[in-house]
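hey so u asked for the seq, here:
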Amino acid sequence: MSPAETNPVDTRVIRDLWEIICERAAHPDETSYTSRLLRDKKGIDKVLEKVGEESTEFIIAIKNGIPERTTEEAADLLFHMLVALRAAGVELEDVMQELERRRR
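ran it, structure tokens below
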């Protein structure tokens, strides 16, 4: 039995998060971290800096063998990757379709 079968997780959370990111892009709110990232004066470079930062923190957490930090940093990295996709005009569905294509 795979880990997913013994501990099912609702993967809808990724799509829900994507919808929130798209909403923040379409209707910016200065109190929203996501809106501020997407509207930063550095443009997409700001989001890409965050992807780089979170990637490094994820790697360090794994290297240090700290499962809790690895989980937290993986979540941060996934979030910032989604924001970067939105900033680049790439749809989540396109990424999901590519993953499906590679699974075959």
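The chain has six helices and no strands. The first helix runs from residue 3 to 6.
lmk if thats what u needed
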